[in-house]
Design a protein that fits this description.
CATH topology: Rossmann fold
Shape: globular
Bound molecules: S-adenosylmethionine
Distance between the termini: 37 Å
Radius of gyration: 17 Å
Mean pLDDT: 94
Strand content: 15-25%
Number of strands: 7
Order of helices and strands: HHEHEHEHEHEHEHE
Structural class: alpha/beta
Largest sheet: 7 strands, mixed
Helix content: 25-40%
Low-confidence stretches: none
Number of domains: 1
Number of helices: 8
CATH architecture: 3-Layer(aba) Sandwich
Strand order of the largest sheet: 3-2-1-4-5-7-6
CATH superfamily: Vaccinia Virus protein VP39
C-alpha cells in the first residue's frame, strides 16, 4: 500500500503541527486507544497497586498523557507540565529527539529510550528502565516498528507483560504475530475495526482498497477511512 509519509511532523519542539495536520484527517477521532488503555491501566492498578507501561513509538507522549492523567488525545497540545495526579509510570521509546523531550518535559512519560531498535542493539542500561513493566503498547506505529523492536524490548523484561497494538487492517504483520506466537500461548485479535484516520488523498485510498480487495473489504465498512484493529496478548498467557 502507498501510505502517506508524515515524517516531517514527528520531530517538532511541540506537537502542534502533528495535531493540526492529523486533525484534518480525523486521526484518532474517535480515539481507538483511550477507553481500552484506561481500562487496562485502572484494572492493572486494582490488581498490582502500581502499573508501568512501555509505549513503543510514543512520539509526543499522547498515550502516556491518557494513561497517566486521562488527558484526551485531542487536548494534548499543552505547554504547562503536569506535576500531580499521575496514576502510573510510562517509558516511551522513539527516535524523534524533540518529541521525546516534549513528552518528558510535560511528564507524559517518566523516562525514555531514544534508539532505533530496528537497526541498533538496545543499550545495556535499558534493563533498569524496563524493570517491572506491566504493559507494552503501540499505536500508529506498525509501519515503522516490527518484531525487531519487540524482540529487543522483550529481551530486557523481568516480568510477564500484556501487549496491545493497533495495526492497520490488512497490512502484513506476520513478523509480529509470529513473535506473539513465540512468546504467548494465545492472543486476541479484535473483531472490531476502528477508523484510524481519513485517507490523505485518492491515491492513498485507491492503493489501500486495491490491497484489500484480496481480503474482506466489506468488513471495514467505511472505505473513506484507514482502519486499524486491536491485538491484545495477556500477561497470564506469557510463555515462561
Ligand atoms: C504515527 S506516529 C505515532 C505516534 C503515537 N504513537 C500515536 O499513536 O499518535 C509514528 C511514530 O513512530 C516513530 N518512529 C518511526 N520510526 C521509529 C523507530 N524505528 N523506532 C521507534 N519509533 C519510531 C516516529 O518518530 C513517530 O513518533
Amino acid at each position: 500500500m502507498k501510505k502517506m509519509n508524515f515524517n516531517h511532523i514527528y520531530n517538532d519542539f511541540t506537537p502542534d503541527a502533528y495535531l493540526n495536520c492529523l486533525r484534518e484527517l480525523d486521526y484518532r477521532e474517535p480515539d481507538f486507544v483511550h477507553d481500552c488503555l484506561r481500562k487496562i491501566v485502572l484494572d492493572g492498578i486494582s490488581s498490582h497497586g502500581e502499573y508501568k507501561i512501555v509505549d513503543l513509538a510514543c512520539g509526543y507522549g499522547f498515550n502516556g498523557a491518557i494513561a497517566k492523567y486521562d488527558l484526551p488525545y485531542e487536548r494534548c497540545s499543552v505547554r504547562t507540565p503536569f506535576v500531580n495526579n499521575s496514576i502510573c509510570h510510562v517509558v516511551g521509546v522513539d527516535i524523534a529527539t524533540n518529541a521525546l523531550k516534549y513528552a518528558h518535559y510535560m511528564n507524559f512519560i517518566d523516562d525514555y529510550i531514544e534508539q532505533n531498535l530496528e537497526k541498533e542493539i538496545i543499550n545495556s542500561c535499558c534493563s533498569e528502565k524496563l524493570e517491572n513493566t506491566n504493559l507494552i503498547i503501540s499505536s500508529g506505529s506498525f509501519s515503522y516498528i516490527t518484531e525487531k523492536t519487540l524482540e529487543q524490548i522483550f529481551s530486557k523484561l523481568n516480568t510477564c507483560v500484556d501487549f496491545v497494538g493497533w495495526p492497520i487492517y490488512g497490512s502484513n504483520i506476520s513478523g509480529i504475530t509470529d513473535f506473539l506466537d513465540k512468546n504467548y500461548n494465545s492472543y486476541v485479535v479484535s473483531d472490531d475495526i476502528y477508523p484510524m484516520r481519513s485517507f490523505f488523498n485518492e491515491e492513498e485510498q485507491n492503493s489501500y482498497i486495491d490491497n484489500l480487495t484480496k481480503i474482506q473489504l466489506s468488513k471495514i465498512g467505511d472505505t473513506k477511512k484507514l482502519p486499524v484493529y486491536k491485538i491484545h496478548a495477556k500477561a497470564f498467557e506469557f510463555k515462561l
